[in-house]
Amino acid sequence: MTGGSAYNVADDIVDLLRDNWQLNRPIKIKKIYDQKSVGFGEDMFDSILIFPKTENVQYWGLYGIDHFHETDVEVEVRSYQGYEHHNDLIDEVQRIFKTNIRRDNFVDLRIMASVVDSEPLRNMFRHKFTVRYRDINP
To answer: What local confidence, expressed as pLDDT, does residue 40 receive?
Structure first.
């Protein structure tokens, strides 16, 4: 890995969710910059969208030769089949994040915020997680 870690983190979240998904229902997982949509037809399926947001880089170590990166990513879970179904998806995403705090090539992964964002929407449930990866010299 070279440079910043925002895109590496987005790739890691996609791999993490795909590799650890245990629900019988398939889910579409996409990074927002890979999301291509012409209409609303494909948006009617359960999905998880990954939004790399901010990367805080701090000088660390003797003479600032090392760098400590904190990368925040928004993970948005969308579903259309009712509250119980949506709650199962949220529980599964939380389970995956909480059981994978320690990550290869990263210091750790933490859930920083969890926000229900379904109120302004009709027929769609949406929940947003803000997760933070910490990394040294990506």
So the answer is: 55
- Cα–Cα distances in angstroms (integers) from residue 14 to residues 47, 61, 67, 122, in the given order: 12, 31, 25, 27
On the 0-12 / 13-18 / 19+ scale of CB atoms within 10 A, 120 is exposed
Give the global pTM: 0.86
CA distances from 84 to 79, 81, 109, 119 (A): 11, 8, 27, 16
CA distance from start to end of the chain: 5
The rounded distance, in Å, linking the Cα atoms of 17 and 21 is: 6
- Among 47, 127, 130, 46, which residue's Cα sits nearest to residue 90? 127
Nearest to 75, CA basis, from 133, 26, 22, 23: 133
pLDDT score for 2: 42
Residues 6-43: tens digit of each pLDDT:
889 999 999 999 999 999 988 999 998 876 665 555 55
Q: What is the pLDDT of residue 113?
A: 97
CA nearest 13: which of 35, 38, 28, 31?
A: 31
